[in-house]
Amino acid sequence: MLTYQDYADPDGAATRGPVASARRQTLGDLPRRSAVRYPDKEAIIDGPTRLTFAQFDAQIDLAAAALHAAGLRQGDRLLLFSHNCWQFPVMIFAAARRGIIAVPVNYMLGPAEIAYLIDHSEAAAIVAEDALAATADAALAQATAAMRLKVAISFELDAAPDGWTGFDEWIASDHPAPPEVVVGDEDPVRIMYTSGTESRPKGVLLSSRSLLWQYTSCIVSGGMEARDREVHALPLYHCAQLDNFLSTDIFLGATSVILRRPDPEQILRAIERERISNLFCPPTIWTALLQSPTFGTTDLSTLRKAYYGASAMPVEVLNTLQARLPDIRFWNFYGQTEMASLATALDPEDQRLYPGSAGLPVLNVETRIVDADDRPAPVGQVGEIVHRSPHAALGYYRDPAKTAEAFRGGWFHSGDLGYFAPSGHLYVVDRIKDMIKTGGENVASREVEEVLYSHPRVSEAAVFGVDHPDWIEMVVAVVVARPGDELDPREVIRYCRARLAGYKTPKQIVIADELPKTASGKILKRELRRLYADAGQNAAHGRLATS
């Protein structure tokens, strides 16, 4: 059988030299191509900083030259440790342009956690905001990796902290243009660390091929256009905001407005001030926007496209959003970091037809439901959600055993349980680890949460299982009341009992002022399990607390 190598490339020129250069399409190329198409169009807005695509691309070139001058070479790892800012995407694309692997880090982590990431990734450099420099230094004191470069982005201080180089000074240095490097489609350009619900976070290794195929799926499935203007308020260290939205905007030539953090009032002001058309938020932030005292008085007339994801959107919350924002089209994006990160999407036209669905597999993804033996499950049967796609990661960095387990059989195993409806729409039931086993029955926490969210005085809810000596696990719910309302735990239990089987009804309702969350808006059930670990034992001995 003849191959391309046989009849067109006998000397391997397509994998090296001028042919490879002519065929190149990698992450680092995207800003330059948008700058050619839209040189004078605003690319990035961050407070008083407004960069056109030409200016943004020029900053990337300066940062790339500075990285080379500091001794960083292709394959080295660069930690990014900062709240959202224009410098963040500059460093993401500058690293990719040099074949350096960017490692975004959760800015809520402590020194010991960061020290682990430094050593596991074998990072050679770090760019951090000044307010986090002390945390970074404490982490470096515990780490064993040798750090060759420390650059501080100035948010609060007039000068860089001791031992750090200021970002503005560093990037403005007159470094010569570095020699060009050939970055292949499958060369790693990013390590995204998972949130660490297990003993240690896993480093998801992504290539340009993973990311660019995923961007194409986002654009097609999400109705994205070059004329869009989008707010980016969720953390850029997280793949959802960085790769579903910010990078797709840069790819397309759309305008991005960056906010430091997802503060509802700042988001609303930015929509009005910058005439925003697109907004992504997880359900917890959409709920906070609805409850903002300025929601009803903010001019949202330019907002046309709304996206939700990162965790399940309660149907009642979505119904409220659609009622209060009737002219806005909503999309549900579902996926995992290992899918770079989009896997399925629910279109605006299907929101009311298939409430609670994660939608259909996107353009470049094939999705299945498999049983415990990894055999395809029939329509309607719950099993594990698995995917096959060029989006998929290269594997887990320095962890071949977990890579082999997650990608067994040639499919990525998501760890989520779900089923397909006859229409082909995917419904996500729960995380495998969040399925509650009580009294010999399985309870999907999401099903109970949907009932709680339908309660007229419940603002937020989280359902989880805790150990129980007789039932294996006991169903517990922590709920937050709507502003100005009060909740009676006994009344909430009666409300659930009228709508759920007895074994699904929470045995304990805890009324809380707020739920613990990650910076990306996900509810931290592992923290709730820790806080209420004794609830099952207390219930068994008649000491059940309800608030």
UniProtKB/TrEMBL annotation:
Signal peptide per UniProt: none
InterPro entries: AMP-bd_C, AMP-bd_C_sf, AMP-binding_CS, AMP-dep_synth/lig_dom, ANL_N_sf, ATP-dep_AMP-bd_enzyme
Keywords carried by this UniProt record: Ligase
Annotated EC: 6.2.1.3
PROSITE patterns in the cross-refs: AMP_BINDING
The organism's place on the tree of life at top rank: Bacteria
UniProt entry tagged with the keyword Ligase: yes
Keyword hit for Ligase: yes
Family affiliation: Belongs to the ATP-dependent AMP-binding enzyme family.
Protein name per UniProt: Long-chain-fatty-acid--CoA ligase
Organism the protein comes from: Achromobacter veterisilvae
Gene (UniProt): lcfB_7
